[in-house]
Specification:
Radius of gyration: 18 Å
Shape: globular
Strand content: 5-15%
Largest sheet: 6 strands, mixed
Strand order of the largest sheet: 5-4-3-2-1-6
Number of strands: 6
Oligomer: single chain
Structural class: alpha/beta
Helix content: 25-40%
Order of helices and strands: HHEHEHHEHEHEHHHHE
């Protein structure tokens, strides 16, 4: 789904990347160019971070993931997700994979309902966790947890308390940044009000709990949250800042950007017009 629309290139849904091109290499190149255009379009807003790509598997069941998923095969998801990440990096933008440890299997929309995934951690580890593990090994800067309950792992949603997200972390070796959308999801309500939700996110080691669609609640959190902040690790927090972006005018006038626009023009546009603005976390973040 695409949040920034006016003045931005209408990007095709990620699923179309897996269905286009004559070879795996061609599909990866198309995905990389889509990532480059995404970052290039955001460069003039001084945006150096985006909550993309979606790394959920396409089970054909989720009402909210839909065509944001690349593919049903976890290795294909990794190949295309890595290509998007590299395209973003080429234009000076860092990536955030979501929705860890996997949202594609459940049908319910976590923005308005409480999805429950009844699979075991072992089942999730050999399917949904694969692209996350491979992307982390490839240098993914951050993850955003799924607001899904995995009762055979933990009774709380991933991103809350110890939850499935934290339980799955050893399987991926993730030691970078976790962003937790604390108020935009219906599932988060099980943790209580906004202050309780932020506390739950912090308890689950989310370095960046945040409120995507209710910035007005930030004052309540700042006034009421009582946190004994630990000292930063001796080596500092893992780096999240990408390289300095290229000059936005030069970038958008470059031959690569123009060629990338040509390559993705018209790809999956019918699908891209559907269900826009479903997820408030699909946007570029200012550095």
């Amino acid at each position: 789904m695409q949040r920034f629309r006016e003045g931005f290139t209408r990007l095709p849904p990620m699923r179309s990347s897996a269905k286009s091109g004559t070879s795996t290499a061609a599909r990866r190149e198309l995905a990389r160019e889509a990532g480059y255009v995404l970052a290039g379009d955001c460069a003039h807003t001084v945006s150096t971070f985006s909550f993309a790509p979606v790394l959920d598997l396409d089970y054909g069941a989720s009402s909210v993931i839909g065509d944001r998923a690349f593919h049903a095969d976890p290795h294909a998801v990794f190949q295309l997700g890595q290509a998007v990440m590299l395209g973003m990096k080429d234009a000076g933008m860092a990536a955030c994979g979501k929705h860890f440890p996997g949202h594609g299997f459940v049908r319910a929309d976590s923005h308005v309902a409480i999805p429950v995934d009844e699979r075991t951690l072992a089942d999730i580890a050999i399917t949904d966790l694969v692209p996350f593990r491979l992307m982390i090994e490839a240098g993914l800067a951050a993850v955003m947890p799924a607001h899904v309950i995995y009762p055979l792992v933990d009774e709380q949603p991933a991103g809350s308390r110890t939850s499935g997200c934290k339980a799955a972390a050893p399987a991926t070796g993730f030691r970078r940044h976790e962003f937790s959308a604390t108020t935009v999801h219906g599932t988060a309500s099980v943790a209580g009000g906004i202050v309780e939700r932020v506390q739950a996110s912090l308890a689950a080691a989310a370095i960046w709990p945040w409120s995507a669609n209710r910035p007005d609640l930030a004052d309540e959190v700042l006034a009421s949250l009582k946190v004994d902040w630990p000292a930063p690790p001796a080596h500092g927090w893992p780096a999240c800042t990408p390289p300095t972006p290229a000059d936005p005018v030069q970038l958008r006038e470059s031959a690569r950007y123009v060629n990338a626009l040509h390559h993705i023009a018209g790809l999956g546009q019918d699908s891209a017009d559907l269900n826009l603005q479903v997820d408030p976390t699909d946007y570029c973040a200012r550095s």
